[in-house]
Protein backbone atom coordinates (compact mmCIF):
# COMPACT_ATOMS: atom_id res chain seq x y z
CA UNK A 1 0.00 0.00 0.00
CA UNK A 2 1.36 3.40 -0.91
CA UNK A 3 0.88 6.55 0.95
CA UNK A 4 1.12 10.01 -0.45
CA UNK A 5 1.42 12.70 2.10
CA UNK A 6 0.23 16.08 1.05
CA UNK A 7 1.00 18.87 3.40
CA UNK A 8 -1.61 21.39 2.58
CA UNK A 9 -4.28 22.23 5.05
CA UNK A 10 -7.81 22.61 3.81
CA UNK A 11 -6.60 22.40 0.28
CA UNK A 12 -7.17 19.57 -2.03
CA UNK A 13 -4.77 17.57 -4.16
CA UNK A 14 -5.35 17.35 -7.88
CA UNK A 15 -6.92 14.05 -8.79
CA UNK A 16 -8.80 12.73 -11.77
CA UNK A 17 -12.14 14.24 -12.51
CA UNK A 18 -14.74 13.25 -15.01
CA UNK A 19 -15.58 16.46 -16.77
CA UNK A 20 -18.02 16.42 -19.63
CA UNK A 21 -20.15 19.20 -20.95
CA UNK A 22 -18.00 21.69 -19.06
CA UNK A 23 -18.96 20.54 -15.57
CA UNK A 24 -16.44 19.17 -13.11
CA UNK A 25 -17.11 18.08 -9.58
CA UNK A 26 -15.57 20.89 -7.49
CA UNK A 27 -12.57 20.34 -5.18
CA UNK A 28 -13.66 19.11 -1.80
CA UNK A 29 -12.51 20.71 1.44
CA UNK A 30 -11.72 18.17 4.16
CA UNK A 31 -11.67 19.23 7.81
CA UNK A 32 -11.09 17.06 10.86
CA UNK A 33 -11.99 18.27 14.33
CA UNK A 34 -10.85 17.54 17.85
CA UNK A 35 -11.95 15.56 19.78
CA UNK A 36 -14.23 14.23 17.02
CA UNK A 37 -15.83 15.29 13.78
CA UNK A 38 -15.26 15.14 10.04
CA UNK A 39 -16.52 17.60 7.49
CA UNK A 40 -16.21 17.27 3.73
CA UNK A 41 -17.78 19.93 1.59
CA UNK A 42 -17.91 21.46 -1.86
CA UNK A 43 -19.00 24.96 -2.82
CA UNK A 44 -22.52 25.33 -4.16
CA UNK A 45 -23.06 26.41 -7.74
CA UNK A 46 -26.03 26.72 -10.03
CA UNK A 47 -27.26 23.35 -11.24
CA UNK A 48 -25.95 21.13 -8.43
CA UNK A 49 -28.90 19.08 -7.17
CA UNK A 50 -27.20 16.47 -4.99
CA UNK A 51 -23.79 15.77 -3.47
CA UNK A 52 -22.64 12.35 -2.25
CA UNK A 53 -19.53 11.40 -0.32
CA UNK A 54 -18.04 7.91 0.00
CA UNK A 55 -14.95 7.65 2.18
CA UNK A 56 -12.69 5.48 4.31
CA UNK A 57 -9.86 6.32 6.70
CA UNK A 58 -6.34 5.01 5.95
CA UNK A 59 -7.55 2.55 3.38
CA UNK A 60 -7.99 3.05 -0.30
CA UNK A 61 -11.48 2.82 -1.74
CA UNK A 62 -12.09 -0.42 -3.55
CA UNK A 63 -13.49 1.10 -6.72
CA UNK A 64 -16.76 2.94 -6.16
CA UNK A 65 -17.65 1.10 -2.99
CA UNK A 66 -19.87 2.78 -0.42
CA UNK A 67 -17.11 3.06 2.19
CA UNK A 68 -17.23 3.73 5.94
CA UNK A 69 -18.82 7.10 5.36
CA UNK A 70 -21.49 7.09 2.73
CA UNK A 71 -24.22 9.65 2.42
CA UNK A 72 -26.26 11.67 -0.07
CA UNK A 73 -26.65 15.34 0.74
CA UNK A 74 -29.77 16.79 -0.82
CA UNK A 75 -29.55 20.42 0.17
CA UNK A 76 -26.86 23.09 0.18
CA UNK A 77 -26.46 25.18 3.31
CA UNK A 78 -24.63 28.49 3.67
CA UNK A 79 -23.33 28.18 0.13
CA UNK A 80 -21.86 24.68 0.52
CA UNK A 81 -22.86 21.06 0.12
CA UNK A 82 -21.63 19.57 3.35
CA UNK A 83 -21.18 16.08 4.68
CA UNK A 84 -20.67 16.12 8.46
CA UNK A 85 -20.15 13.21 10.82
CA UNK A 86 -19.88 14.28 14.46
CA UNK A 87 -18.55 10.89 15.68
CA UNK A 88 -15.71 10.35 13.19
CA UNK A 89 -12.35 10.37 14.95
CA UNK A 90 -9.28 11.22 12.90
CA UNK A 91 -5.70 11.91 13.93
CA UNK A 92 -2.98 14.01 12.33
CA UNK A 93 -1.32 11.82 9.72
CA UNK A 94 -4.51 9.91 8.88
CA UNK A 95 -5.46 9.85 5.24
CA UNK A 96 -9.05 10.07 4.10
CA UNK A 97 -9.64 8.23 0.82
CA UNK A 98 -12.85 9.15 -0.97
CA UNK A 99 -14.85 9.62 -4.09
CA UNK A 100 -17.55 12.18 -4.67
CA UNK A 101 -20.67 12.32 -6.81
CA UNK A 102 -22.77 15.26 -7.97
CA UNK A 103 -26.15 15.41 -9.72
CA UNK A 104 -25.97 18.38 -12.03
CA UNK A 105 -28.83 19.96 -13.99
CA UNK A 106 -27.53 21.73 -17.09
CA UNK A 107 -30.86 23.41 -17.94
CA UNK A 108 -32.14 20.49 -19.95
CA UNK A 109 -31.06 17.28 -18.31
CA UNK A 110 -29.87 16.09 -14.96
CA UNK A 111 -26.53 14.25 -15.23
CA UNK A 112 -24.41 12.43 -12.67
CA UNK A 113 -20.73 13.30 -12.34
CA UNK A 114 -18.21 11.26 -10.41
CA UNK A 115 -14.78 12.21 -9.12
CA UNK A 116 -12.74 9.12 -8.21
CA UNK A 117 -9.46 8.45 -6.42
CA UNK A 118 -9.32 11.37 -4.05
CA UNK A 119 -7.41 11.48 -0.81
CA UNK A 120 -6.40 13.96 1.83
CA UNK A 121 -3.89 13.64 4.65
CA UNK A 122 -4.88 15.34 7.87
CA UNK A 123 -2.19 17.79 8.95
CA UNK A 124 -4.07 19.48 11.77
CA UNK A 125 -7.17 19.05 13.89
CA UNK A 126 -9.44 22.02 14.11
CA UNK A 127 -11.46 23.08 17.15
CA UNK A 128 -14.92 21.60 16.90
CA UNK A 129 -17.34 24.05 15.28
CA UNK A 130 -19.00 25.96 18.08
CA UNK A 131 -16.56 24.68 20.74
CA UNK A 132 -14.07 26.91 22.51
CA UNK A 133 -10.65 27.18 20.83
CA UNK A 134 -7.75 25.00 22.05
CA UNK A 135 -5.58 26.50 24.84
CA UNK A 136 -2.70 27.88 22.77
CA UNK A 137 -1.56 28.03 19.21
CA UNK A 138 1.54 26.04 18.38
CA UNK A 139 4.74 28.09 18.74
CA UNK A 140 7.28 28.13 15.91
CA UNK A 141 10.18 27.22 18.18
CA UNK A 142 9.45 24.56 20.72
CA UNK A 143 11.28 24.97 24.02
CA UNK A 144 13.29 21.86 24.79
CA UNK A 145 12.04 21.50 28.33
CA UNK A 146 8.34 21.88 27.87
CA UNK A 147 6.52 21.08 24.67
CA UNK A 148 2.89 21.87 24.22
CA UNK A 149 0.93 18.96 22.91
CA UNK A 150 -2.25 18.77 20.95
CA UNK A 151 -4.39 16.22 22.65
CA UNK A 152 -6.32 14.32 20.07
CA UNK A 153 -7.97 12.16 22.66
CA UNK A 154 -6.33 8.75 22.47
CA UNK A 155 -3.86 6.74 20.40
CA UNK A 156 -3.56 9.44 17.75
CA UNK A 157 -1.85 11.87 20.17
CA UNK A 158 0.35 14.51 18.59
CA UNK A 159 3.39 15.90 20.39
CA UNK A 160 4.62 19.01 18.69
CA UNK A 161 7.97 18.67 16.91
CA UNK A 162 10.50 21.44 16.13
CA UNK A 163 10.11 20.29 12.53
CA UNK A 164 8.02 22.58 10.36
CA UNK A 165 6.40 21.85 7.03
CA UNK A 166 5.57 24.96 5.03
CA UNK A 167 5.55 26.99 8.19
CA UNK A 168 3.49 24.65 10.37
CA UNK A 169 4.81 22.43 13.14
CA UNK A 170 4.56 18.69 12.64
CA UNK A 171 3.94 15.96 15.19
CA UNK A 172 7.04 14.30 16.62
CA UNK A 173 8.30 11.37 14.58
CA UNK A 174 5.60 11.87 11.96
CA UNK A 175 6.30 10.79 8.39
CA UNK A 176 5.89 14.11 6.62
CA UNK A 177 6.96 13.18 3.10
CA UNK A 178 6.74 9.87 1.30
CA UNK A 179 7.33 9.63 -2.40
CA UNK A 180 5.79 6.65 -4.03
CA UNK A 181 7.05 6.36 -7.53
CA UNK A 182 4.58 3.66 -8.59
CA UNK A 183 2.00 6.43 -8.57
CA UNK A 184 4.40 8.95 -10.11
CA UNK A 185 2.67 9.47 -13.45
CA UNK A 186 -0.60 10.27 -11.73
CA UNK A 187 0.63 12.25 -8.78
CA UNK A 188 3.91 13.86 -9.75
CA UNK A 189 2.44 17.33 -10.14
CA UNK A 190 1.37 17.34 -6.48
CA UNK A 191 4.89 17.08 -5.16
CA UNK A 192 7.44 17.65 -7.89
CA UNK A 193 8.37 20.16 -10.52
CA UNK A 194 10.34 18.59 -13.34
CA UNK A 195 13.01 21.04 -14.44
CA UNK A 196 13.32 22.07 -18.04
CA UNK A 197 16.36 24.29 -18.21
CA UNK A 198 20.01 24.59 -19.03
CA UNK A 199 22.12 24.00 -15.94
CA UNK A 200 23.93 27.14 -14.78
CA UNK A 201 25.55 28.18 -11.49
CA UNK A 202 26.56 27.29 -8.88
CA UNK A 203 27.79 23.96 -10.32
CA UNK A 204 27.80 24.68 -14.07
CA UNK A 205 27.21 21.03 -14.86
CA UNK A 206 27.32 20.22 -18.59
CA UNK A 207 23.66 19.35 -18.74
CA UNK A 208 20.26 20.33 -20.10
CA UNK A 209 17.48 19.21 -17.78
CA UNK A 210 14.49 17.99 -19.70
CA UNK A 211 11.28 16.09 -19.13
CA UNK A 212 11.90 13.33 -21.64
CA UNK A 213 10.66 9.75 -21.18
CA UNK A 214 13.97 8.35 -22.41
CA UNK A 215 15.75 10.13 -19.57
CA UNK A 216 13.12 10.26 -16.83
CA UNK A 217 11.05 7.16 -16.23
CA UNK A 218 9.63 4.82 -13.63
CA UNK A 219 11.00 1.27 -13.71
CA UNK A 220 9.69 -1.32 -11.26
CA UNK A 221 8.18 1.42 -9.11
CA UNK A 222 11.52 3.20 -8.98
CA UNK A 223 12.30 6.59 -10.38
CA UNK A 224 15.07 6.29 -12.97
CA UNK A 225 17.12 9.13 -14.43
CA UNK A 226 19.28 7.99 -17.33
CA UNK A 227 21.36 10.81 -18.83
CA UNK A 228 22.11 10.62 -22.54
CA UNK A 229 24.21 12.57 -25.00
CA UNK A 230 22.45 15.55 -26.53
CA UNK A 231 23.76 14.52 -29.96
CA UNK A 232 22.26 11.07 -29.64
CA UNK A 233 18.83 12.56 -28.97
CA UNK A 234 18.85 15.48 -31.40
CA UNK A 235 21.41 14.42 -34.02
CA UNK A 236 25.16 14.38 -34.43
CA UNK A 237 26.64 17.86 -34.19
CA UNK A 238 23.56 19.35 -32.53
CA UNK A 239 25.62 20.84 -29.72
CA UNK A 240 27.73 22.93 -32.10
CA UNK A 241 24.82 24.21 -34.20
CA UNK A 242 25.12 28.00 -34.29
CA UNK A 243 21.34 28.50 -34.29
CA UNK A 244 21.36 27.21 -30.73
CA UNK A 245 18.60 25.64 -28.75
CA UNK A 246 15.57 27.34 -27.26
CA UNK A 247 13.60 25.47 -24.60
CA UNK A 248 10.62 27.67 -25.36
CA UNK A 249 7.49 28.23 -23.32
CA UNK A 250 7.97 25.23 -21.09
CA UNK A 251 11.33 26.37 -19.74
CA UNK A 252 11.27 26.38 -15.94
CA UNK A 253 14.32 28.65 -15.69
CA UNK A 254 14.57 32.41 -16.00
CA UNK A 255 13.13 33.42 -19.37
CA UNK A 256 15.41 35.01 -21.94
CA UNK A 257 18.45 33.93 -19.95
CA UNK A 258 21.06 31.21 -20.42
CA UNK A 259 18.73 28.93 -18.42
CA UNK A 260 16.27 28.87 -21.34
CA UNK A 261 18.19 29.65 -24.51
CA UNK A 262 21.80 28.98 -25.54
CA UNK A 263 23.75 29.21 -28.76
CA UNK A 264 27.01 27.67 -29.93
CA UNK A 265 29.90 29.78 -31.14
CA UNK A 266 33.63 29.10 -31.05
CA UNK A 267 34.42 27.71 -27.59
CA UNK A 268 30.80 27.82 -26.59
CA UNK A 269 28.61 24.77 -27.21
CA UNK A 270 25.17 23.54 -26.23
CA UNK A 271 25.46 21.29 -23.13
CA UNK A 272 26.42 17.83 -24.41
CA UNK A 273 24.30 15.85 -21.92
CA UNK A 274 20.54 15.65 -21.42
CA UNK A 275 19.48 14.71 -17.93
CA UNK A 276 16.64 15.29 -15.48
CA UNK A 277 16.17 17.07 -12.20
CA UNK A 278 13.10 17.22 -9.98
CA UNK A 279 12.42 19.53 -7.08
CA UNK A 280 9.66 19.96 -4.52
CA UNK A 281 10.03 23.75 -4.38
CA UNK A 282 6.70 25.45 -3.75
CA UNK A 283 5.08 22.08 -3.02
CA UNK A 284 6.94 20.59 -0.07
CA UNK A 285 9.54 22.22 2.13
CA UNK A 286 10.55 21.58 5.70
CA UNK A 287 12.93 22.68 8.42
CA UNK A 288 14.69 20.10 10.59
CA UNK A 289 13.95 16.41 10.30
CA UNK A 290 15.38 13.20 8.97
CA UNK A 291 15.47 12.58 5.25
CA UNK A 292 16.21 9.16 3.87
CA UNK A 293 16.70 8.27 0.21
CA UNK A 294 16.98 4.67 -0.87
CA UNK A 295 18.81 4.78 -4.17
CA UNK A 296 21.35 3.27 -6.51
CA UNK A 297 23.78 5.97 -7.59
CA UNK A 298 24.80 6.42 -11.23
CA UNK A 299 27.92 4.68 -12.52
CA UNK A 300 29.85 6.25 -15.39
CA UNK A 301 32.63 8.79 -15.74
CA UNK A 302 31.80 12.33 -14.61
CA UNK A 303 28.23 11.48 -13.64
CA UNK A 304 26.97 12.23 -10.15
CA UNK A 305 23.74 12.09 -8.16
CA UNK A 306 21.97 15.26 -7.12
CA UNK A 307 20.30 14.39 -3.83
CA UNK A 308 20.08 17.77 -2.20
CA UNK A 309 18.14 20.01 0.08
CA UNK A 310 18.09 23.56 -1.26
CA UNK A 311 16.76 26.68 0.40
CA UNK A 312 13.05 27.16 -0.24
CA UNK A 313 12.98 30.96 -0.28
CA UNK A 314 16.69 31.81 -0.40
CA UNK A 315 16.38 34.44 2.34
CA UNK A 316 20.17 34.55 2.66
CA UNK A 317 20.83 34.84 -1.06
CA UNK A 318 20.83 32.69 -4.18
CA UNK A 319 22.60 29.37 -4.67
CA UNK A 320 25.18 28.54 -2.02
CA UNK A 321 24.66 31.87 -0.26
CA UNK A 322 21.74 30.00 1.32
CA UNK A 323 23.73 26.75 1.62
CA UNK A 324 22.96 23.25 0.42
CA UNK A 325 22.61 19.95 2.26
CA UNK A 326 23.91 16.94 0.30
CA UNK A 327 22.36 13.65 1.31
CA UNK A 328 24.72 11.51 -0.78
CA UNK A 329 27.32 12.23 -3.41
CA UNK A 330 29.70 9.90 -5.25
CA UNK A 331 31.47 10.44 -8.55
CA UNK A 332 30.39 7.79 -11.08
CA UNK A 333 34.00 7.21 -12.15
CA UNK A 334 35.36 3.75 -11.44
CA UNK A 335 37.69 3.98 -8.45
CA UNK A 336 36.38 7.36 -7.27
CA UNK A 337 33.00 5.87 -6.48
CA UNK A 338 34.51 4.04 -3.52
CA UNK A 339 34.21 7.36 -1.72
CA UNK A 340 30.79 8.52 -0.54
CA UNK A 341 30.27 12.09 0.59
CA UNK A 342 27.52 13.87 2.44
CA UNK A 343 27.27 17.14 4.31
CA UNK A 344 26.75 20.80 3.62
CA UNK A 345 28.08 23.19 1.02
CA UNK A 346 28.77 26.74 2.17
CA UNK A 347 30.15 28.37 -0.98
CA UNK A 348 31.46 27.87 -4.50
CA UNK A 349 35.24 27.58 -4.10
CA UNK A 350 36.65 24.09 -3.51
CA UNK A 351 37.45 24.83 0.15
CA UNK A 352 33.86 25.92 0.83
CA UNK A 353 32.55 22.81 -0.90
CA UNK A 354 34.77 20.57 1.22
CA UNK A 355 34.84 22.18 4.63
CA UNK A 356 31.69 20.48 5.89
CA UNK A 357 31.68 17.34 3.74
CA UNK A 358 31.93 14.01 5.50
CA UNK A 359 33.23 10.97 3.65
CA UNK A 360 33.18 7.22 4.02
CA UNK A 361 35.23 4.89 1.83
CA UNK A 362 34.97 1.19 1.15
CA UNK A 363 36.63 -1.31 -1.10
CA UNK A 364 33.66 -1.68 -3.42
CA UNK A 365 31.98 1.07 -5.33
CA UNK A 366 29.03 2.88 -3.71
CA UNK A 367 27.38 2.75 -7.14
CA UNK A 368 27.15 -1.06 -7.17
CA UNK A 369 24.05 -1.47 -5.00
CA UNK A 370 21.07 0.21 -3.48
CA UNK A 371 21.80 1.98 -0.19
CA UNK A 372 19.80 3.96 2.34
CA UNK A 373 21.32 7.43 2.52
CA UNK A 374 20.17 9.78 5.21
CA UNK A 375 20.72 13.16 6.77
CA UNK A 376 19.46 14.05 10.23
CA UNK A 377 19.06 17.80 10.30
CA UNK A 378 18.73 19.29 13.77
CA UNK A 379 18.82 22.86 15.10
CA UNK A 380 22.44 22.38 16.20
CA UNK A 381 23.95 19.72 13.91
CA UNK A 382 23.62 17.65 10.74
CA UNK A 383 24.44 13.93 10.85
CA UNK A 384 25.09 11.77 7.79
CA UNK A 385 24.43 8.05 7.64
CA UNK A 386 24.41 5.27 5.13
CA UNK A 387 22.55 2.01 5.80
CA UNK A 388 21.99 3.16 9.38
CA UNK A 389 25.70 3.70 9.97
CA UNK A 390 26.70 7.21 10.99
CA UNK A 391 29.78 8.50 9.17
CA UNK A 392 29.87 12.10 10.23
CA UNK A 393 28.26 14.95 12.13
CA UNK A 394 28.68 18.60 11.30
CA UNK A 395 28.50 21.18 14.08
CA UNK A 396 28.76 24.84 13.23
CA UNK A 397 31.95 26.37 14.65
CA UNK A 398 31.82 28.76 17.59
CA UNK A 399 30.52 31.95 15.99
CA UNK A 400 28.58 30.03 13.34
CA UNK A 401 29.44 29.23 9.73
CA UNK A 402 29.67 32.99 9.09
CA UNK A 403 32.93 33.02 11.05
CA UNK A 404 34.50 31.07 8.14
CA UNK A 405 33.81 33.89 5.67
CA UNK A 406 37.42 34.89 5.10
CA UNK A 407 38.91 31.42 4.83
CA UNK A 408 36.20 30.04 2.58
CA UNK A 409 35.61 33.23 0.55
CA UNK A 410 31.95 33.17 1.50
CA UNK A 411 29.70 35.72 -0.12
CA UNK A 412 26.93 37.43 1.81
CA UNK A 413 27.51 35.24 4.86
CA UNK A 414 27.15 38.31 7.11
CA UNK A 415 23.43 37.76 6.69
CA UNK A 416 23.76 34.37 8.40
CA UNK A 417 24.55 36.23 11.62
CA UNK A 418 20.92 37.28 11.79
CA UNK A 419 19.89 33.62 12.03
CA UNK A 420 20.44 30.86 14.57
CA UNK A 421 23.79 29.18 15.20
CA UNK A 422 23.26 26.71 12.35
CA UNK A 423 22.42 29.45 9.80
CA UNK A 424 22.08 29.30 6.83
CA UNK A 425 20.50 25.91 7.67
CA UNK A 426 17.75 27.41 9.80
CA UNK A 427 15.25 28.02 7.01
CA UNK A 428 12.95 25.60 5.25
CA UNK A 429 14.45 23.61 2.41
CA UNK A 430 13.01 21.61 -0.47
CA UNK A 431 14.15 18.32 -1.98
CA UNK A 432 16.10 18.03 -5.23
CA UNK A 433 16.59 14.72 -7.06
CA UNK A 434 18.58 14.59 -10.29
CA UNK A 435 21.71 13.56 -12.13
CA UNK A 436 24.52 15.91 -13.12
CA UNK A 437 27.55 15.47 -15.39
CA UNK A 438 30.83 17.39 -15.34
CA UNK A 439 31.05 20.96 -14.12
CA UNK A 440 32.41 22.30 -10.86
CA UNK A 441 31.71 19.25 -8.74
CA UNK A 442 35.02 17.80 -9.91
CA UNK A 443 38.22 19.44 -8.73
CA UNK A 444 40.83 20.44 -11.25
CA UNK A 445 43.81 18.10 -11.43
CA UNK A 446 47.20 18.26 -13.01
CA UNK A 447 47.60 14.61 -14.02
CA UNK A 448 45.58 14.98 -17.21
CA UNK A 449 42.84 12.54 -16.15
CA UNK A 450 40.13 15.21 -16.14
CA UNK A 451 39.39 16.59 -19.60
CA UNK A 452 38.52 20.16 -18.55
CA UNK A 453 39.48 22.92 -16.14
CA UNK A 454 36.77 24.62 -14.12
CA UNK A 455 36.28 28.35 -14.58
CA UNK A 456 37.33 28.25 -18.23
CA UNK A 457 34.76 29.14 -20.85
CA UNK A 458 35.97 26.27 -23.02
CA UNK A 459 35.54 23.62 -20.33
CA UNK A 460 32.26 22.22 -21.68
CA UNK A 461 33.71 21.90 -25.16
CA UNK A 462 36.81 20.15 -23.81
CA UNK A 463 34.55 17.68 -22.05
CA UNK A 464 32.61 17.07 -25.27
CA UNK A 465 35.80 16.70 -27.34
CA UNK A 466 37.03 14.03 -24.92
CA UNK A 467 33.83 11.98 -25.18
CA UNK A 468 35.65 9.02 -26.66
CA UNK A 469 37.37 8.69 -23.28
CA UNK A 470 34.26 8.70 -21.08
CA UNK A 471 31.26 7.80 -23.22
CA UNK A 472 32.02 4.07 -23.20
CA UNK A 473 31.84 4.03 -19.38
CA UNK A 474 28.12 4.99 -19.54
CA UNK A 475 26.55 1.56 -19.66
CA UNK A 476 23.27 0.21 -18.37
CA UNK A 477 24.08 1.34 -14.85
CA UNK A 478 24.70 4.92 -15.86
CA UNK A 479 21.49 6.00 -14.17
CA UNK A 480 20.16 7.06 -10.80
CA UNK A 481 17.44 4.81 -9.42
CA UNK A 482 15.42 6.02 -6.47
CA UNK A 483 13.19 3.66 -4.57
CA UNK A 484 11.85 6.26 -2.16
CA UNK A 485 12.42 9.60 -0.53
CA UNK A 486 11.04 9.88 3.00
CA UNK A 487 11.17 12.63 5.56
CA UNK A 488 10.27 12.34 9.23
CA UNK A 489 9.74 15.09 11.77
CA UNK A 490 12.23 15.20 14.66
CA UNK A 491 11.28 13.31 17.80
C1 LIG B 1 17.11 0.18 3.98
O1 LIG B 1 15.73 0.46 3.83
C2 LIG B 1 14.96 -0.67 3.48
C3 LIG B 1 13.57 -0.21 3.17
O2 LIG B 1 13.09 0.66 4.14
C4 LIG B 1 15.01 -1.68 4.61
O3 LIG B 1 14.26 -2.82 4.28
C5 LIG B 1 16.45 -2.07 4.84
O4 LIG B 1 16.55 -2.92 5.95
C6 LIG B 1 17.35 -0.85 5.07
N1 LIG B 1 18.73 -1.28 5.07
C7 LIG B 1 19.58 -0.97 6.01
C8 LIG B 1 20.92 -1.61 5.92
O5 LIG B 1 19.32 -0.22 6.92
From TrEMBL:
Domain GH16: start-end pairs: 202-491
Protein's UniProt keywords contain Signal: yes
Alphabetical list of PROSITE patterns matching this protein: CBM39, GH16_2
Positions of the UniProt region annotated as Disordered: 131-155
InterPro entries found in the cross-reference section: Beta-glucanase-like, BGBP_N, BGBP_N_sf, ConA-like_dom_sf, Glycosyl_Hydrlase_16
Single Gene Ontology BP annotation: carbohydrate metabolic process
Residues spanning the signal sequence: 1-19
GO molecular function, one term: hydrolase activity, hydrolyzing O-glycosyl compounds
Bias kind Low complexity: ranges: 138-149
Boundaries of every CBM39 domain copy: 23-127
Keywords: Immunity, Innate immunity, Signal
Record family assignment: Belongs to the insect beta-1,3-glucan binding protein family.
Name listed for the protein in its UniProt record: Uncharacterized protein
Species the sequence originates in: Dendroctonus ponderosae
Amino acid sequence: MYMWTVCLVLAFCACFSHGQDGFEVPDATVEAFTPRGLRVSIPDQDGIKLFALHAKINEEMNGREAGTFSRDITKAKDGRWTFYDSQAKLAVGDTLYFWTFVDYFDGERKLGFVRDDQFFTITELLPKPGAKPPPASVPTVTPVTKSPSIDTGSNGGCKVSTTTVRGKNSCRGQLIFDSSFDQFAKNKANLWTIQRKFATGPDYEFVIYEDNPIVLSVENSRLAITPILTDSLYGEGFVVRPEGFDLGEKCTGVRASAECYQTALGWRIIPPVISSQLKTKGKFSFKYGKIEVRAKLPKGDWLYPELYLNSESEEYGSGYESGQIRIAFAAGNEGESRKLEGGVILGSIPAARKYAMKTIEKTQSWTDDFHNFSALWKPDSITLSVDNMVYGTIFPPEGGFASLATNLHLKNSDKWKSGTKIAPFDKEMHIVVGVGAGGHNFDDRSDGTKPWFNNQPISQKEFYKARNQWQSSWKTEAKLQVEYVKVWALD
